[in-house]
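Lab notes, practical 5.
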Amino acid sequence: MAKIVKKERLSADLVRMVLEAREIAETRKAGQFIVLRINEQGERIPLTIADADAKTGTVTIIFQEVGKSTRLLGSMGQGDDILDLAGPLGKPTHIENFGTAVCVGGGVGVAPMFPITEALKEAGNKVITIIGSRTKDLLILEDEMKAVSDRLLVMTDDGTYGQKGFVTQALEEIIKSGEKVDIVVAIGPVVMMRAVSEVTRPYKIPTVVSLNSIMVDATGMCGGCRVSVGGKSKFACVEGPEFDGHQVDFKELMMRQKTYMKQEHESLECFLNQALKK
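Output from the prediction step:
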């Protein structure tokens, strides 16, 4: 079991939790994730590790309440126990001194981007970070990202904070300014990661994306998380979650993400109806 040490609501549907998980905290690396199960009837939820503290033996997760399982997780509080917590899983981010690295985080994707940005900075890179959200209320970790970046750009779709526009616009402006960009790392909605990859493609800038494909066991056994990269099938759980953005078949990925949409909607409706009866 993993005890919830701290819970903080970052916005209406974004939650940060600190969990007891000493072995994971001591061994995790940037880019890796955990899989948790709330109870015996719960589904396995993959969540990237947003931060970890080896001294206190804790890991931090940030998630958005979207479906039944994440809403149930969000209803738990400090002192509650989560039944299962497995990790660290997946391949860690390849970190070296590339030169100038641009880190692009969209929405809740800013959370998993934080440890990567931190690691790239510690490796000696010049780090330019772009974070974005639909509105100011959904923007997270601005101060934390600023602390590990040489330069931070904030974008909101509606212009309620920072610059109005998309993260891709800021990225393109950086490239066109003549700044030599040696690598781009992007984490966020699939459509955002695809757009970032298309911005960098003409310039042949190496671009890494982290794929949040459907996962079940997260050990490479079930094949539920398979994605097409460079025309070959890859398992995101054990061969990723990070891949070359210029090689990912994003169209297929988006189709696969909709596989259980009907069942997810029905499960959420049932959960909300039960909550109303209580």
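Observations recorded by the TA: Residues 1 and 83 are 5 Å apart (CA to CA). Residues 93-210 form a domain with the Rossmann fold fold (CATH 3.40.50.80).
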